[in-house]
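Ticket reopened. Same input as before:
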Amino acid sequence: MPTGKSIRRNTPQRKILLEELCSLNTHPTASELYEIVRKRLPRISLGTVYRNLEVLHEDGQIGKLELNGHEARFDGMVQPHCHARCTGCGKVRDLPEIDPRKFESASAEINGFLIQGFKLEYFGTCPECRLHSADCLKEN
Amino acid sequence: MPTGKSIRRNTPQRKILLEELCSLNTHPTASELYEIVRKRLPRISLGTVYRNLEVLHEDGQIGKLELNGHEARFDGMVQPHCHARCTGCGKVRDLPEIDPRKFESASAEINGFLIQGFKLEYFGTCPECRLHSADCLKEN
DNA sequence: CTAACTGCAAAGGTTTTGCTTCTGG
DNA sequence: CCAGAAGCAAAACCTTTGCAGTTAG
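Engineering reply: fixed in the latest deploy. New output:
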């Protein structure tokens, strides 16, 4: 049972996608990134964008923001950091750092951004999955 | 400019939907709820389920969980509480309470659930929207 | 009565997939 | 070479919407 991860090929599409994402400090959707990358690779397809973002995320080279509800957004910054979404315009921006103690007084202002609350989700392993086996983390 | 909210009618569809959701301590998707409610209202449509979940959420009678990435999940418990998603099976369960101080040691175990991390998103108003006007919170 | 609502079906938007061709290593 | 990847188009999702008929209040 060869379980080895398949060998990644460094295609121009993948390289340029990563390059462009990392040059932004915004958090584009797949389509937005598609439009950007198309300037350099006019024949790239949206499917390729999705497949590569998936792969890059799997390999930990980019972040994937699914906190927003609908479309996923991608993030070239992989260091742990924190996001703030404006309920007015919908844009997501980075916050300088996570300070857990700030949670208690959530009505703060950071860099001009007026914080009105937060959404939080823990992740981990539920009791059932812990019993079943360790590879239930990989499967599914 | 009459801005009054329209008067809600207490239709059986709406009532039963709320009833069934509140009887669960899981967090079903619209389709899952559709399947459940269909047992009592065989002719209900998925569109009606979506429309009513929207209305109920708007009126603060149910919670809406958009933290998961793709499909929205709904929650009959409106009191503020905290969610944990299993990276194995994907299910979401409630955690008894939010204790901000727990953030510092994120590798905790609560009720048998092994917590490996959390995702956090602030929301509020960005500097641009604060300048533009207050109703940019309502618009868009 | 009548505005709010339903059921149905079609449309919209995002993401995935099948397939053939291409290409990095 | 050839497994991995691209391009293309179709399909698969979830969710919203238009419309004509129905109904709660």
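Residues 6-9, 11, 13-14, 43-45, 47-48, 51-52, 70 of chain A lie near DNA strand D (CB under 10 Å from a C1'). Helices of chain A lie at 12-22, 30-37, 46-58, 127-132. Please confirm and we'll close it.
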